[in-house]
Amino acid sequence: MKLAAKILKIASIIFVSVLVLLFSLSLIMQNKVAGILLKTLNNNFSTKIETGSYRLSLIRKFPKASIELKNVLVHSSPDFDRAAFGGIKTDTLLAAKSASIDFRSIDMLRGTYTFTKISVRSGKLNLYTDTSGHYNYDISKNDDKTDGADNVKLNLNRINLSDIGFVYNDRRVDLIIGGIFKDGQLRSKIRGNNIDFSGKSKVNFELFRLGSFSIRQSIAAELEVGLNQNEKGTFFKKSTMRIENWDFVLTGFVAADNYLDLNVAADNIDISKITRFLPEKYSKAASAYHPSGILKFNWTIKGKPTKTEDPHYDIAFSLKNAHIDNSGSDLKIDRFSFDGAYTNGAKNRPLTSSFSVTNFTTRLGSADYTGSFSVSDFTNPRTEFVFKGKLIPAELREFLNLKNVSSAGGTIDLNLRFSGRPGKKDSYRFSDVFNLDSKSEVIFHSVGLSLENRQLDIRDATGSFVINESATTDNFRLTLNKQKISFSGKFVNFPGWLSGNPVNLLGTATISASSFRPELFMNTPEENSKKTISTGGKAPLSLTDDINLDVNFRVDTLVYRTFDARNISGTLSVKPKMLNFRTFSMNSQKGRVSGNGLVVQNRDKSFIGRGSFAVSGVDVNESFVTFHNFGQDFLKAENLAGTLSGNITLILPADSLLNPDIRAIVAEGKYVLTDGALIDFDPVKALSSFIELSELENIKFDRLENDFFIRNNTFYLPQMDIKSSAADLSVNGEHSFDNEYQYHVKILLSEILSKKARKNRTVSDEFGEVQDDGLGRTSLLLKIVGKGEEVKVSYDMKAAGTRIREEIKKEKQTLKTIINEEYGLYKKDSEPEQKKSLRPRFRITWEGSDTTSAVKEPPVQRKERLLDRLFKRK
Questions:
Q1: Which domain holds residue 332?
Q2: Is residue 83 located within the same domain as residue 164?
Q3: Of 499, 457, 498, which is closest to residue 480 (Cα–Cα)?
Q4: Structural domain count of the chain
Q5: Which of 168-172, 360-364, 747-751 has the largest mean confidence?
Q6: CB 216 within 8 A of CB 241
Q7: For the segment 660-672, what is each residue's pLDDT rounded down to a tens digit?
Q8: Run of H or E residues at 21
Q9: Among 322, 350, 378, where does a domain finish?
Q10: Which of 188, 210, 231 corresponds to the end of one domain?
Q11: Most confidently modeled of 25-29, 519-523, 821-825?
Q12: Looking at the domain assignment, is residue 429 inside a domain?
C-alpha cells in the first residue's frame, strides 16, 4: 500500500509538473507560434489575414497543440472591380468569430511546423465576381518563393466549417446565391502552387435570385467536391450537388490561361418535388397540382472568356411523358413532352445565340395539343411560335378550378402561327409573340361562358377569326346576356392587344342587335352592396387609352327601366380616353331624336360630355313619365301635354363615377311645342288666383316657340309674347336647379279688365301698377317668385318704373324727330333704327273661350299728340 501511494504521489507530481510545464511553455511560445502562423498564412495566400486575440493551448488537444484565434478577418483579393457592387462593402472575404489551428507539439522543439487542421466557426463568407469575370477570392500566390517555406508546411488534412454563412454575387449574369454551411469537412494539401482539395458539406440555400426571378426559401443540399489546382489549371474530379435526390454532377477543368472545359449534367430530376422550389406566389397557386416525370439537363461550357467574348455554351434539356394531376378534378395532363436547347452559336455572341422548344405534345382531358417555340439572334430576336389544338372550355374550367366561371361549353379550334422580330427592347415577355406577323385562325363552335357574381353570360358563340396582317371576322354571332348580337370587323394589333401588350387596337366594326337591355349587364342592388363592402367602395370608371375604333351600330329595340327606344343607329368613334358619337338617331316617346356628341375623360379621371341633339315630334307627357319628371317635382307629367320639337346643345361635367355635376351644366336650345297644354301648374294657378282669372288655371295653345339657356345652375327663359283673345301675356324669367325661381309677366287684360272696371272701383285701384299700351288697352305687370312649393305673386314695381322711363325716352326721341323733320333742328341726331322684333308670338286658346280662330290685329297707329297738332301743317 505504501508503495502504491508513493507511486501515485510521484505520478501526481509528475502530471502536475507536466501541466505546469505545458501551460508555462504555451505562455512563453504563444506569441512566437502565432507570429509564425500568421506569417505562414500571409506568405501562402495573396490576401491579408488579420486576427484579434489569440491563445496557444498545449493541454486541450495533447499531444497536439492548437492555437485559438478570435475575430479572424481575411481580406478580399485586390484584382476585381469594387465599384460594380455599389452600396456593398466588398473588402472582406471571410469574417469569423473564432478559428483554431492544430499542429504537433513536438514541432515547437524541432522548429519545423506542419499545420494539420483548421476549424472555422460562426462566420460569413463573401464571394464576389464583377462584370469582367474578376473575383475577390483569388487567394493563391503565383510565386513559389515564400519566406519560411523551408521550415513551415500547410498540410491541411482537415478543415472544419460550422455555421458559416455565404453569399455568392455574380454581376455578369445578375446572380445572387445565399445560404449557410452547416457542417463541412474539407481536406487540402498545399505545396506552393499545387493544391489538392476535397470535401463535403451540408448546405442550406436561403436565396436564389437570377435577374427579377427569385426564390426565398430554405433548400437543403449536400455538396461533395474534388479538385486539383496546379500550374496548368484547376481540374475537377466528379463533384456533386444533391438536392432532393437530384444529382448535379460537375466535371472538367479550368486551364491556367482561363480556358474552360466544363460539363454540368443531371439525369434524374424528378419534377414531382419541383413545386416546392417555386416562388411563394406561384407555389400557392400550384399547390393543388401534382406533376410527375423525369427531367434531363446537360450544360457544356468550352472556350476562353474575354472582355469581348464569352465561351461557347450548349444547354440541352428534355421531359418525356410527364403527368400533372389535379387533386380537385378527375382530369389530368398526360403525355407532356418536349425537347429544349440553348446555344450561343458559332461566334459565341448574342448575334448567333438561339433558344428553342421543339416536339411539344400534351393532352388535357380529351384534347391534344402540339407546338414549338424558337428565338434566334438575341440582338434583334427572330421569333416563331406554333400552337395547334382543340380547346374545350368545360375541361379547362374544371382542370384549372376556375371558381369564378359558373359554366362553359362548346369548342375552339386553335391554329396559331406567329413569327417575326419584336424589335430591340431592354426586356421581353412571352406575350410579345402576339405582336408578330401571323398566319392564324381561331374557330368558335357554340362556345358558352358564364361568370359568377358578374352579369356576363355568353352562349352559342359561333364564327371565326382569321388573323393575318389584321384580324377579320364576318358575321360572328353570339347570345350575350339573352340578347342576340352579330358583328363583323377588321382589327389591327388584335392578338397583341388581347394579350395585354402596350399596343393600340385599330380597326372598324359593324354591330347589330335585335334588342339591348342595359339592366342585364348590371349587378343587382344586393350584389352591388356586397361588392361595395368587400372593396371598400366603387372604383373610378376609366375609358380605355389603347383603342382607335370606328363602330357602326344598329339596335332594333332598347329598353332600360321605363325608357324604350326603337330603330337605334349611329356611328361611334372610340379613341384614347374619348367616345365620339358622330351620328346617332332613334325613335322614342312617339318622336325621333338625332344628333351627335362626345365624352372625354380628363387627367383627374373626371368626365366632360358635349352633345348637340335634334328632337322631332316627342310627346312631352310621355317624356316626363319615362324620365320620372327628370328628378324634380316642380313641373310634373300631369301638368304638361303637347308635342315637342327643337334642338339643344349642352356641356355636362361628371365625376369619375359618372355622377353628373348639374350645377356646372351649360346648355342652350330652341323648342317648339304644338297642341300643348299647361294644366294645374301651381305658379300659374297662383297667378290666376291673384288676378281672379280662372281661365289661367288650364292653358291650351296651338304653338309655343322660344329659346332657352342654362348657365350657373339656372334655367333662363327669354321674353316671349303669348297672344290670346282672352288675354295677352309677355313672360320672361329664370329658374335655378335649387327650385328657386322668378318670372315677370305682362298681361293685356282687354275685355276682361274692362268688365272689372265697371265695378265700383278703378282699374288702378284694383290692380296696382297698370299701363296703357297706346292702343287703349291696359297692361298689368306682375312678378311670380317661388322657392319649392312656396309661390308668391305680386305687382312688378321695378318693371313698371323701367317701362315708364323707357316710354319717356321714346317720347323725347319722337319729339326730336318731328322738330327735325319740320324745321331742320337736331340734324346731328337721327332717329334710331327700329329693330324688327325677334320675339316669337304665340296663339293661345283658353278653356271656355268663344273661339280658337286667329283674329287679325289692326295696324298699329301712333296717336296724335299735342305737339303733333301744334306743328301740324295746314
A1: 241-350
A2: yes
A3: 457
A4: 2
A5: 360-364
A6: no
A7: 887 888 989 898 8
A8: helix 2-44
A9: 350
A10: 231
A11: 519-523
A12: no
